[in-house]
UniProtKB/TrEMBL annotation:
Span of domain PRELI/MSF1: 1-170
Region (Disordered): 162-194
InterPro entries: PRELI/MSF1_dom, Slowmo/Ups
Composition-biased stretches (Low complexity): 169-181
Chain intervals with Polar residues compositional bias: 184-194
Source organism (scientific name): Clytia hemisphaerica
Protein name listed in UniProt: PRELI/MSF1 domain-containing protein
Length: 194
């Protein structure tokens, strides 16, 4: 299993990020997102907006990997919680297809940056695991590399949707990646409603 933990700083206010969170697709950086749909949306007793969405995504797939896939399209389930009162957006995301080859689970928390209230901090945790005998380490290395490149694409996409030029706005990133060997499946908090 590969575990990735990172903190990024978006050069936009939390309220700006919140205002475009459900409008982030399409954008010039998201040509890999083929479609999205809302499955469920509700407001809980604490006024937290809870939304479950499904995405159809594709990425360029190396020829060696395509031999193992029935299609390059993957379906992603995202549950998001927007807490206006506490200025938090929390997302739980996981792929629901191609799980044997590669399972990716992610938890993100978007919050007001503690050092600069005009910026937004994104804390990410991702668990990347393959259950494919013999090629598990290869698929996990590929999955981690693809995950990291998609994070950068997401940041450029947010900037694009907010009307900024991603070439003039820099995103600070500090990330650590660790390899953990474990037979225990790690869950990142995907809610039981999924």
């Amino acid at each position: 299993m590969r575990f990735n933990e990172s903190v990024q700083i978006l050069h936009h206010t939390w309220l700006d990020i919140c205002s475009v969170f459900y409008k982030r697709y399409p954008n010039p950086q998201s040509k890999h997102v083929l479609g999205e749909d809302v499955i469920k949306r509700s407001l809980d007793e604490n006024n937290v907006l809870k939304t479950t969405r499904i995405f159809a995504k594709t990425n360029e797939v190396p020829g060696w990997l395509m031999k193992f896939l029935p299609t390059a399209t993957v379906y992603i389930l995202e549950e998001s919680h927007i807490d206006i009162q506490n200025h938090l957006i929390t997302t739980y995301t996981r792929n629901i297809t191609h799980n044997t080859l590669l399972s990716v689970e992610e938890r993100c928390v978007f919050s007001i940056d503690t050092d600069n209230k005009e910026l937004t901090s994104v804390q990410r945790r991702a668990w990347i695991e393959s259950y494919f005998p013999g090629l598990k380490p290869v698929f996990e290395r590929f999955g981690l590399s693809r995950y990291n490149s998609n994070i950068q694409r997401m940041h450029r996409g947010f900037t694009s949707v907010l009307g900024g030029d991603s070439s003039t706005r820099r995103t600070s990133t500090t990330a650590t990646s660790q390899y953990r060997q474990s037979d225990v499946h790690v869950s990142n908090g995907i809610q039981s409603t999924l």
